[in-house]
Amino acid sequence: MTEIELNNEYFEWMCQLVCNERYSRRLSYQKLLRHLHNIDFQYMLPMDGNRAEDGIDLRYRFGYEKEYEGPMIASYLDNRPCSVLEMLIALAFRCEEHIMTDPDIGNRMGQWFWNMIVSLGLGSMSDSRFDAAYTDDVISRFMNRKYKRNGEGGLFTVERCKYDMRTVEIWWQMNWYLDSIL
């Protein structure tokens, strides 16, 4: 298998984790997801480095599930920084598997992922409406923490939040968001 083939398979694997009829309303978001995968995740708060590490760990989870050897993953996939897409999907995994898992409801990983996409302001970026410049502006605003105090424009919007979401790590933002919807 070539590096390009493995990277394409990895991208498709990530997409199938979060794109299904339940959450993507039968629209294609391949252009958005590909674009997010081409943007390196950058962070300002040191603890958000954990989100980048989770994104990189996603590569090895893929390798394990697909039975690829670790050295192959290290050589072909783990040769660049974590992408925004990887960070978002890894965070959705953490949310579902470590906090919100409920066998009666089923896997809601896609729900957590698309909630973040909507909070960012990218929910309308299906393939037919995709705008790369707008997406770049949105992601720049997110990574530079230029969104609203309540998190709107970032990953998690918390109505009437008593804290400034721009000053806390993503993990706390997610937990406050989950507290606000339960």
Helix content: 55-70%
Given helix and strand content, the structural type is: mainly alpha
**How many independent structural domains?**
1
CA-based shape: globular
Contiguous low-pLDDT stretches (5 residues minimum) are: none
* Mean of pLDDT: 93
The percentage of residues in β strands lies in under 5%
Overall description:
By secondary structure, the protein is mainly alpha-helical. It has one domain. It has helices at about 5-20, 20-25, 30-35, 50-65, 70-75, 85-100, 110-120, 130-145, 170-180. The chain starts with a helix and ends with a helix. The relative contact order is 0.14. The mean pLDDT is about 95.
Helix-strand layout with pairing:
Layout: H1 3-18, H2 21-24, H3 30-37, H4 49-65, H5 70-76, H6 84-100, H7 109-120, H8 132-143, H9 170-181
Question: What is this structure, in a nutshell?
Answer:
The chain is 58% helix and 0% strand. It has 182 residues and is mostly helical.
Key descriptive features of the protein:
182 residues, mainly alpha, 9 helices, globular
